[in-house]
Design brief:
elongated, alpha+beta, 3 helices
Length: 66
């Protein structure tokens, strides 16, 4: 049986917590910031946690981190 490979793009964007949840940084804070409101930019600064169905997909992409 071949080795299970990690999706490198996913490993750079997502981190697995000790309890098994998947953290990620919200998108949309790199450029074109002048038209975005201060409140919107402030909420984008904080990380978020993936939903349960998306976490199941991540288990296939990041097999060695779960």
């Amino acid at each position: 049986m071949p080795k299970m490979k990690t999706r490198k793009a996913a490993s750079k964007r997502f981190k697995v917590t000790a309890s098994g949840k998947v953290k990620y940084k919200k998108q949309g804070l790199r450029h074109i910031l002048t038209k975005k409101s201060t409140k919107r930019k402030r909420t984008l600064r904080h990380g978020a946690v993936l939903s349960e169905p998306e976490t199941k997909r991540m288990r296939r992409m990041l097999p060695h981190q779960f």
